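Following up on my earlier thread - several people asked me to post the actual chain instead of describing it. Fair enough. Here it is, all 407 residues.
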Amino acid sequence: MEKLQQMKSALQLCVDRHQDELHSLSRDIWSRPELAAEERHAHERLVRFFSQEDKAWTVESHYKLPTAFRASWGPVGGGEGDPVLNVGFLCEYDALPGIGHACGHNLIAEVGAAAGLGLKAALQSQTELPVRVKVTVLGTPAEEAIGGKIDLINAGAFADIDLVFMAHPAQQDALFLPCVALDEVSVKYHGKASHASAYPWEGVNALDAAVLAYNNVSVLRQQLKPEWRLHGIIKHGGVKPNIIPAYTELQFYLRTPLVKDLCDLKAKAEACFRAAAVATGCQVEITYPTHAYYNILPNVTLANLYENNGKALGIQFPEQPANFSGSTDFGNVSFIVPGIHPFFYICTDAFNHTEEYAEAAGAERAQLYTLRTAKALAMTAVDVVCSPDLLMQVKEDFRLVKLKYEK
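Reply from S.P.:
Thanks for posting it. Predicted structure:
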């Protein structure tokens, strides 16, 4: 117990010592918002941060993806030839169009960087550890639009990582919120243009198909399960009122609490889209342009450890919301690596994806809560690193929850 406390004290002191640099890092990313897959400044800023950090980190820029990076340190502890326990902290840093960092991804980057520094300091403070430990901070771009973590999974970036930690800004501190599975569908109707007044009978109206499809989906909602979501827009509805539209396009998001339910919702939605094509004589093109986001798998052992460490730092966890309809590509990561994705308060009651939340994400008052969260994540990693029994329980939780959710 004394050893654990020494390690946790060391990491807290380290984060406090670097608080100005961490705030500068976050503020710099916040002040130059970049969209998904375009985070060149944020990438360079984070790479420079770790490259200059006492030269101890091995830093790989453009890691697997143009705006991803990896900073690693270690391994230390254990015995020569023992397997390495690679502990990963994830950073996000993409912004939203028009409103900047209204989801606080600049703070996610700061939490990941701070937690990585903290765990490194904790490990350096000890001469003996039960396992060989490596610390990895992984920059994961394009969460808002493309699913950069999924591309990184497919590229093998998580193949050698054994535990993952990250935290997301919200309206309150929460151990776990049930982020839902998400898929995006693009629906394009192809008809035939004609003069809308002189000879409309010569045309095939793609806008009629789009309107029917939208109405079909609206009617379908009455028969959907309460937790399912199906929402969208008409992206292109025609060119001019006196031209029968030859082309229209719709975009919909489909969400279900479990990824295995997405197939059922997709089948129902596609029936609506195809029926509109049949009714109007149009041709329909249905595609899924991005990766599907999975629901997050919980890990009870990690959540309990995080709660204990958070409370020791003064974090209060109010009653958790029963429902939550947000989605994240961390869900896909949680299906391949045991991990935790808590949420943290940043001193605002504003909702994510608003101008007010963007302002709060760049405010100095968010720093206390951000760095406190980073400390709690690193302290949770210390608990697991120092206890083979806890590590075994984390892995068993992961195995059992995967069996439950994959049935």
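Residues 105-124 form the longest helix (20 residues). That should answer part of your original question.
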